[in-house]
């Protein structure tokens, strides 16, 4: 979860792209069969997987505690990215298909952001 201190027009879109990317990474790391808890543990664990403090000074159950306490919020946050990842049969799309779809969405958003930036530059230079 993210607390926004100063809102920006792109904050929600950027957070949504981050959630899609986290879900895609988790799906790539998970085995072929997994349950909801395992998925959220993998998503939440992404933040700590490279943190050397995790093995030394942190509570070894930190990720489990976060997921356990925040499960309703995690379900809410990841409902849309999960829905986007579903295929007709009701299962999750393959990780590679999900990664491709996420890359296409993010590329489209980057293009729109550039276009908006170009429009703002044009407006600024003509003023």
Give a written overview of the molecule:
- With 127 residues, this protein is mostly helical.
- It has one domain.
- Helix content is 70%, strand content 0%.
- The longest helix has 32 residues, at 95-126.
- The model is unreliable at 119-127 (pLDDT under 50).
Keywords:
disordered C terminus, Tam41, EC 2.7.7.41, 127 residues, mitochondrion inner membrane, phospholipid biosynthesis, 70% helix, 0% strand, mainly alpha
| H/E element order | HHHHH
Mean pLDDT: 75
* End-to-end CA span: 40 Å
The number of distinct β-strands equals 0
Question: Which word captures the global form?
Answer: globular
Count up the domains. Answer: 1
In percent terms, what proportion of residues is strand? Answer: under 5%
Radius of gyration: 18 Å
Which structural class is indicated by helix and strand composition?
A: mainly alpha
Low-confidence parts: 119-127
Q: Helix count? A: 5
The residue fraction in helices comes out at over 70%
Largest sheet: none
Enzyme class: transferase
EC number: 2.7.7.41
Keywords: Lipid biosynthesis, Lipid metabolism, Magnesium, Membrane, Mitochondrion, Mitochondrion inner membrane, Nucleotidyltransferase, Phospholipid biosynthesis, Phospholipid metabolism, Transferase
Cofactor: Mg(2+)
Question: Could you give a short description of this structure?
Answer:
The chain has helices at residues 11-29, 36-45, 53-56, 62-85, 95-126. With 127 residues, it is mainly alpha-helical. The protein starts with 10 loop residues before the first helix and ends with a helix.
